[in-house]
Automatic annotation (TrEMBL):
Domain of life: Bacteria
Native species: Actinomadura craniellae
Disordered, as annotated region: 147-166
Protein name: Lipoprotein
Length: 228
């Protein structure tokens, strides 16, 4: 599989202080049965980025226009673009749109949402190696709890856009940054441990970002950390 480098910029990262509680909306949402999330579908190449040391700082990083907690509802084929000559061997760069049913809006304006959903664009690869919406659906099943830190400002390879895998009139946000997506896995009970949950970074492992990212064990705890 060919590797592509995405360069993202975030000039200013600040921390917003406010109180928060575990969101009942997320706890009551449809959730996937115990199992793992295969985030390899999201790890299509190396990303150069400025990362926030805490979830609270990530929520107010430059370019982040919406932060929501909810559940994955499905995937659709997104936009296609080319690097250089469209007839080259590299093939087209594909994108897939993740549809998220919003349980709680943590930060941002409603204009970045549509009919109770957020639509987040992710890389799917290039040419014959590109992943399909069905590949994403198998890897990240419907009902998987997720927090989205959606970018709404254009970056060099992510022009402002509407359409491309979203309903008419729905805004498309970017989930290309390494800290854009955090999923919750539900772990079944074993002879040694009770059933529980843990969080998994979508594009990069959470321990790459610092200890504040590995402390929350559930989407509810992550939302609380964002609001602190």
């Amino acid at each position: 599989m060919k590797k592509f480098m995405v360069t993202l910029t975030a000039a200013t990262i600040a921390v917003a202080g406010c109180g928060g509680q575990e969101p009942a909306e997320v706890a009551g949402a449809e959730r996937v049965a115990a199992g793992r999330v295969d985030v390899s579908v999201l790890r299509q190449g190396h990303v150069n980025s400025v990362n926030a040391e805490t979830p609270a700082a990530a929520a107010v990083a430059r370019g982040v226009g919406i932060v929501v907690a909810g559940t994955v509802e499905g995937f659709t084929e997104g936009r296609t673009s080319y690097v250089g000559d469209p007839a080259s061997d590299d093939g087209p760069i594909k994108r897939v749109v993740m549809r998220i049913r919003v349980g709680k809006k943590v930060k941002g304006e409603d204009r970045h949402l549509h009919d109770g959903h957020a639509y987040a664009e992710v890389f799917a690869g290039a040419g014959q190696s590109a992943r399909t919406p069905a590949d994403f659906q198998r890897a990240i099943p419907k009902g998987t709890p997720v927090v989205l830190f959606g970018r709404t400002r254009p970056t060099p390879d992510q022009p402002a856009s509407r359409g491309g895998g979203v309903p008419e009139g729905a805004p498309l946000v970017s989930a290309l940054h390494p800290q854009s997506l955090v999923f919750e896995e539900r772990t079944p009970a074993t002879a040694r441990a009770a059933a529980g949950t843990k969080l998994v970074g979508g594009i990069e492992d959470l321990d790459h970002f610092g200890p504040a990212w590995t402390k929350p064990r559930s989407i509810g705890e992550l939302v609380t950390a964002i609001q602190q």
